[in-house]
Amino acid sequence: MTSNNCRCVVSGLGVICAVGNNVEETWKNALNSVSGIHKTTSLDTKNCYADLAAEVNCDTLDDIECPDEKDRASKLCIKAAKEALNDAGLGDFADSSRVSVIIGSCVGGVLSIEKYHCGGKDVNEIPKMPIAAIASQVAESCHAGGIVTNVGNACAAGTISIALACDLIRAGKADVVIAGGSDSFASVPYSGFLSLHALDENGCSPFNHCNGITLGEGAGIVIVESLEHAEKRNAKRYCEVLGAGVTSDAHHITAPREDGICLLEAMDRAVKNSGIKKSDIGYLNAHGTGTGKNDNAEINAFHKFFDEENPTLSVSSTKVMTGHCLGAAGAIEAVFSIKALTTNTVLPTLHYTAEDSEALKAKVGQMDYVQNTPRAKELECVMSNNVAFGGTNASIVFSKKPGDVQSQVAKDKKIAVTGVGIVSPLGNSKEAYLESVKNGKLPESASICSTVTNDDYKELGIKMAFYRKLDNLGQLQTVSGMRALKDANLTVTEDNAKQIGIIVGTSEGGLGATYDFQELITEAGNAGGSAFKFPHTVYNAAGGYLSILSGIKGYGVTITTGPLSGLDSIGYSMNVIHDGQEQVMMATGTDENLPIITEFCQKLNVAADKVVEPYSNSNGFVVGDGSVSIIIENEDYAKARGAKVYCYALGYGNGRKNVKFGHISGSDEALDLAIKEALNDAGIGIDEIDAVCGFANGLKKLDDIEKAAYARVFGDKLANLPLFQVKERVGEGRAASAALAAAEAALMLGGELAEENAYFVANDGSVSKKKVATAGFKKILVTSFATGGSYNAVVLGK
Length: 798
Hints:
Blueprint: E1 8-16, H1 23-31, E2 38-39, E3 52-53, H2 72-88, E4 99-104, H3 110-118, H4 132-142, E5 148-151, H5 157-170, E6 176-183, H6 187-195, E7 218-226, H7 227-232, E8 239-248, H8 261-274, E9 281-285, H9 292-306, E10 314-316, H10 319-322, H11 329-343, E11 345-346, H12 354-364, E12 368-369, E13 375-376, E14 381-388, E15 392-399, E16 415-423, H13 430-438, H14 454-460, H15 464-467, H16 472-487, E17 500-505, H17 511-524, H18 541-550, E18 556-559, H19 565-578, E19 584-591, H20 595-603, E20 626-634, H21 635-640, E21 647-656, H22 669-682, E22 691-693, H23 700-714, E23 723-724, H24 727-730, H25 735-749, E24 755-761, E25 767-773, E26 779-786, E27 790-797
Helix pairs in contact: 2-4, 3-17, 5-11, 6-17, 8-9, 16-18, 19-25, 22-23
C-alpha cells in the first residue's frame, strides 16, 4: 500500500472546450454524444481543402483582470483554473508558496504572434507570445505562489503536466498543484497541419476512417493535492493519481513508430509506477487523432500490451467531440477520464456506421472500442494516453483506490555530473569555451549568436542529410547534446536507450520558427504553409531531433518557463533520477538569437545598444544565445561504467513572488527562498558555499535584485564571496546561459577551469572585479530567474 506522502488526489476539475464552457456542460454534452466540430468561423480558409474546427464559443473570457495583457491561450486556461479551484473549495491559500502551477501548451501565444506581425508590431503583444506566459499568468490570477512551470511537449503536454504535478508533491516541493494544458485555434497550427495533409475535410474519425485530424481549442485543469493536505481541509476527492510513464520514440519528428513499441513502454511504466495490474484498467482514453499512422500505432500498442491480461479493455477517443486541442488535449481528456471513472461511464468514439463497426472489429478483435453512445461499466482504474510531435509518449493512471506507488526510491543515491556539451557565441565545444575564458574574451557587439557549421557535424559523425532537417534551434541543441554524450563517454545502445532521458529547458523554444511560419502564411495564405518548416514551431522539436539523432528513448520533456528553464532542467532531472525513472539524464538549456528575438528585446527596451558588463548599471543587456547540455547520472551507474565525475548535484530549490509576466520588479525576496530551499535540499549551510554562478546581465533592475538577495542571504560573507557571471562573455542567452552557469560551476569543481574573473559586492553595494583561483572550491551555488517573479537555485559540490 502506498504511504500517505506518495498519495496524490484530484480535488477539483475545470474545462472549457468546443462542447462546453465548464465541466457540467461539457460532460452533459459528452453523454449526449454531441460533437463540437463545425466549419471554422475565425480563420481564412480560402484555397484550403479542409475548413472544420472545434472552436470555443464563450463571451466571458475577458471577465478577468487585465484581459488585454493576456493571449487567448492564457484566458482559456485562467477560466478553467478558476473553475477547478472553486470546485476544489480552494480560494485563499493558507500557504500560497506551497501552491504550484504547471501548464502544458503546444503553440502558446500564437494568436499574439499573428497580431504582432499583422497589426503594426505592437510591443504589447510580445509578452503574450511565449508558452512561459500561461502558467505565470494563471499563478498571478489565482494567487498561487509556488513553483511555476510550463511544459512544451506539444500534444502530450497536458498529460505530462499532471504527471509533473505529482512528482513535485511526492518530492515534497508542493502541497497543491494547478495542473493542465491550454491552446487556442490559430492560423499557424491550422496552416501547418494543412501543409502536412493531416486534416480530415469531413471531420476526424478516430480508429475508423482515419483520414486526418480536426483541430480544436480549449483548456483543462485538474487540482492535484497531497492526500495529507486534502484530508486536513476535509476536501472532496474525485480519485487518486497513480503512476505515469513518459518515453521518446527516437524515430521521426512528426510520425509515431508504427509498431507503437515506445508508447507501449510508456503504458508499461505508468502501470508499474502505479503498482497495479493491467487488468485493473477498465477504460482507456486513447490519443486517437484520426490519422492512419497514429491510430494504427495505438492499436498495435494496445494489442501488445493488453491482449494477454486485459483483452476486453474499453477504449475510445473523445477528440471527435472536442477536436484535437493540441497541448490542452491531455488535460481535457484527463477531465473526461476522471468523470468516466467517478460515474462508471465509458465514453464513446462517435460517427460509426454498422459497416464501420464491422471493419473495426476485424482490426481490434476482442478489445471493446466503444462506439456512438456512452456505456455503463464498473470502473476501478482508467488510463489516459497522449503522443506528440518529437516522438513523445505519455500515459497516466487515475484510480478510485490507492495503488502501490513508489516515489523517491533513489533519493539516497548521489547524482554525479559526468558530461558537458557547450555551444556558445565563443565556440561550439567545451574546449573552445575554456580557451575563451582563459583569454578573457568578451562580446564584440550588443547582439551575438552561436553558429553551427558542417564542421561540427563532421567532427561528431552526423550526416548532412540529418543536418538539413534542422532549424537553428535544433542545430544548437543536437550539437550540444551529442558533445555532452561524447564528453561523458556515454554510448547510447539498444540496451541502455530506455535508461537515459532528456529534459530540454528553453525560454522561447520555437518562437522564432513560429514567427517565420507566420510571416510565410501572411504572404501566401493559410493554404501556403510549409510542411518542412511547420514541425519546428513546436517547442519540443529540438529535443525530439536530439532523441532521434542520439537514439535516447527514455524520459523526454521540454520545459519552458523563461531563462531559469536551463537550470530547472537540472532540478527536474535530479527528481527523475531520485524517482528511479532513469539512470542517466541529459539536462539542457537552449535558446537562439534570431533577428526577430533581438527585435523583440529592442522593442521591450531591454537590449543594450553597446557592449555592457554585469553590474554596469545599464538600461539593457547584450542579447545572446546558445545550448548547453549536462549529463547527470546515478553515481552507482556512473561508477559501474567507469565514468569520470566533475562534481555532484546536491540540491535544488525554487522561489516565486507573483508580478506581471514580463516584469521582475517587486519579486526580490523570492530569490532568497530559492537559495534557502536549494541549501536545505542539499543538507548544507550558507557557510559551505564557496562561490556563486549567477545571472547578472548588465540590466540594472535585474542585477540589483541579485545583489540585494545575496546580501540578505549571505550577510557579511558576501564581501568575500566570488560571483561568476557567464553573461559577460555570452550575453543574455536565457535558458542557455542558465545551463552554462551550471556547466561553468561543474568545470571549476572538476578542475578544468582553474582561474576566472569574479565579481565582489562590498557592504556598501559597490562592485569590484578580479581574477580568482578556483582550486579550493568545494560547493558552488548556481542561480537563475524568470519574468513573472520566479527564481531557482542548484547546489553543485565535490
